[in-house]
Amino acid sequence: MGARGGGAQSKGGKQSTNPPRGMRDFLPDQVRLRRRIIDVIRSVYEAHGFEPIETPALETLSVLLGKYGDEGDQLLFKVLKRGDKLAKALAAPHVDPAAVADLGLRYDLTVPLARVVAAHRMPLPFKRYQIQPVWRADRPARGRYREFYQCDVDIVGAPAPLPEVELLSAACQALERLGFDDFTVQLNHRGLLFGLLEQAGVPAARRTDAVVVLDKMDKIGKDAVRAELIERGVEAADALLGMLSFDDEGNEVVLAELAGHCRGNEQAESGLAEIEQILDLSGEQTSRRLSVAPCLARGLSYYTGAIFEISSPQLGVSLAGGGRYDGLIGMFMGEQQPACGLSLGLERIVDIFEQRTETRTPAVDVLVTCWDRDGVGTSLRVAEQLRATGLKVDFYCEPVKMGRQLKYASRRGIPAAVILGPDEVASGRATVKDLSNFEQQQVDLDALAATVTAITANIGADATS
After folding, report:
1. Of 169, 240, 283, 334, which has the maximum CB count within 10 A?
2. Cα 169 to Cα 24, 164, 173, 284, distances in angstroms
3. CB–CB of 416/365 below 8 Å?
4. What does the alpha-carbon distance between residue 366 and residue 390 come to, in Å, rounded to a whole number?
5. 357-412: per-residue pLDDT in tens?
6. Burial level of 6, CB count in 10 A (0-12/13-18/19+)?
7. pTM confidence score
8. From residue 432, how far is each of 365, 369, 404, 421, 448 by CA, in Å?
C-alpha cells in the first residue's frame, strides 16, 4: 500500500508529513508494480487497436458540471479563481460560492474525452485509451481514494453492439493477462432498466432517484435498497424489485423472465435485444464470463445504453465498469455521436497484487561498488559498459567501507555486486559477488556482463509475466 494521507494537522508544533486524506505517496517498489500492471493493460489495449491520449488535470467547471448527476457534481474538487478575479468575487456583499471557482479537477476520463473529440474533430470511429489520475471529493475509506488512476478504453462514433463486444474483450484479456481468472462481467442496459421502471409504475420524476438507489444493491443489499426507495418516494419499490431480482438462475432463464416483464414496452424490449446481441457476438473467452444483471444501474447520469461491471466474487471487489453514453459528446459537438467506454480500476488491481507473495524481479541487476577515489573512474566506466549491454546498474556514489555498500545492495534486493579494488584494476579483472549466497568469483571484464546475467537469471520471474 502507498503511504496513506491523514491530513495536514500538526502535533506539538511539528508539521505533519502525511499527504492529504484520501491521497497517497508511492515508494519505489510500489511505483514499479504499478508500472508493470499498467504496461500489461496498455499492451492489451494497443493490441486491440486503441490509441493513447492525455488531457489536463484541470477542466473548466462548465465542462464538468451537469454531466455526472447531482451526487457526482457534489464530489468535484473545485479550484478557486486567482488574483483580482477571486478578490472581486470575495468582495461582493453576498459571496456566491458558485462565483469563486472556475476550474475543477477531472472527476473521470470520459467527459474530457468528449471535449477532446469535439475540440479536435477526431476522425471517427475513434478508438482511444487513457491511463491517468482522477480526483473525487469523496469520504476516504479502505479501497476508496480521493486521487486514483483510471485505465479507460473507449470507442466513439460507432453504434451498439459491436463496440461493447470489443471493449469487453479487451478488458477480459487484460485481466487474464494479469493473472485473474475468477471474475464475472455483469451486463445490463439503461433502456431495459428505465423501461422496467415504467412497467413497474415508477413515476418519471422518481426514476433517476430509483436508479441511484438501485446502484447501491451490491453494497447495502435488497432490504436496504427497498427501504431507501420507499424513503425517496418510490411507492412501487416491491413491484420494481420483483421484476429485477433474480437468484443465480443463468442467463437463459433471466432473459426469458425479462422478456415477459418487457412485453409492450418498446424501450425495455430494445434494451433487452441489445443485451442478447452482445451475448451472441462475444467470443468464447468473454461470453463464458457474461452474466445478465437486471439490478445493475451504474449511477452516472450520462449512460444511455448497455452498462457493465466486472467483479470478482472471490475477492469481493469490482475490477472494472463502463457503458454506452450516446448523449454526452453531443453536449460539446452540437450533434449526437454514439460512444461506449470501459474503465479498469487500477487501484483495486494494485491492492490485490500487493497482497500476493510472489517473487518479483529486482529493480536493479547489479551494484558497481566504489573502492576509493583513485578507482572511481574505472568503476564508472565499468558501470556504463554494463548498462550498454542492457543490464540495470546502480553505482554507489561514495567510497565507504565495502560492508556498508554490500548491505545497501542487499537491502534493495540487488542480486549481484561488482568489486573493483586495486588488485582487480591492475589485473584487468573484477570480483563478482552473488548476494543470494555470498559466493564470489573473479572474472575478466569482457565476461562481466555474462556473469551478472547468469546470476540474475536465477531470480524469480516477475509476478505479472
Report:
1. 240
2. 32, 8, 6, 10
3. yes
4. 12
5. 555 667 899 999 999 998 899 999 999 999 999 999 999 999 999 999 999 999 99
6. middle
7. 0.84
8. 12, 10, 16, 12, 8
